[in-house]
Amino acid sequence: MSFITGVGLTSYGKHEGSSSLDLMSQAAQLAISDAGLKRSEIDGVLCGYSTVSPHIMLATVFAEHFGIKPSYAHAVQVGGATGLAMTMLAHHLVEAGIVKHVLVVGGENRLTGQSRDASILALAQVGHPDYEVPLGPTIPAYYGLVASRYMHEYGVTQEDLAEFAVLMRSHALTHPGAQFHDAISVTDVMASKPVAMPLKLLDCCPVSDGGAAFVISRERTGEAGVRVRGCAQAHTHQHITAAPALSEFGAEISVAKAKQAAGVAISDVRYAAVYDSFTITLAMLLEDLGLAGRGEAAARVRAGHFSRDGAMPLNTHGGLLSYGHCGVGGAMAHLVETHLQMTGRAGNRQVRDASVALLHGDGGVLSSHVSMFLEQVR
Amino acid sequence: MSEKPADWTTGAEAIVYQCCAACGGLQYFRRSFCVSCGAQNSVEKRASGAGTVYATSLVCRAATPETRAHVPYNVVLVDTFEGFRMMAHGDIDLCIGDKVTARFVPFAGRLVPHFEKAE
Asked: What 3-state class would DSSP assign to A100?
């Protein structure tokens, strides 16, 4: 058994003058304090990567910078799925008795530490160096390809996709830490600058500075009980050229295995935290996970199903699309928000019932998937 | 294992794929072994350049000065007549399902495959 005993999250947006290590440290201190622990009690560290400050040993660089001497530490790299992959590993590490308290941390000054072109270029390298990258694709282009095919197969429209951007923005409006606080409409999304059609600027998550962290422990450290109920991964390909048919994408495989590991059904889920690098990512993943029928996710958004007061509140902090995306920390914010909801600390964003949550992360171009169920324990 | 024949990734006007002599498996990303069965006697073949459009994305925001000079450009996935999928460029008006044929055009200092509607 493992518990998420503390969470920490900075605001996302511009943190002028903060390094990746600074942002990681801020989030780490928040998470450790939230767990009611002392730094010296952290005996495991898992961290992600920083495209701004790459290092072959980031976890030990961080541990030294932060001032701890863990008995277990290394970095993990699975693109956007890194946060949940680290959480899954931490869960198994504490269950196996290897460590008591694992600090999972990600943070990056991706917005102010490098040019937007440098970010786009660094991320495009998830493409094949010989057979894709020379064609000048960008991450939005890889997802634009996915979007064009998904829209073709399931009759999804650009206006449908825009609904997800509007929903995430409406949620971000209620979170002071979100990068964006201006309301947007479907018309605004449709009129935003074309990036990689069918995706336009407001279909894409921003580049942000920020940091997020959690502590995963063998026992509770306070009254709040949020338990990892079960989790699983699936890795079907790296490059979009080598991806399986849309009907065989990895999210379906990982969620099926996670349901089995957790012994829960989708009908048990009360809160969803789903990776949303682009509007198409969120639309597809919701349908792959079984949170909406094929081609029906947008209709559910319009009906309020995924709103704070809906039947399946989704990314109530605003997601990558509107809270922001600072790399590894980006999707970790989804788990922080889930924890706040499950412990009744989400303030004006609090949902009625978050007793069982489904989290899903995606890395690459729908390449690597991690699905996880969290459960509230009284 | 035969020598790698020149293809567009090395500046020649050709699309090359591998066919496993043991299991018949096809692969586009070149390797020294068959990704299906592991055999090391794949045969290099030259593709006809014919195919069908699987997906498209019109890139309007590029990340380098070299590629920015070409915007907008259409990045496409094509299911080739031979049976493998590849990424390439294509005419801007291509639609999913269109039958296409490849030519080769300069792009950002390289030669890249570019599909247009078949006659």
From this structure: coil
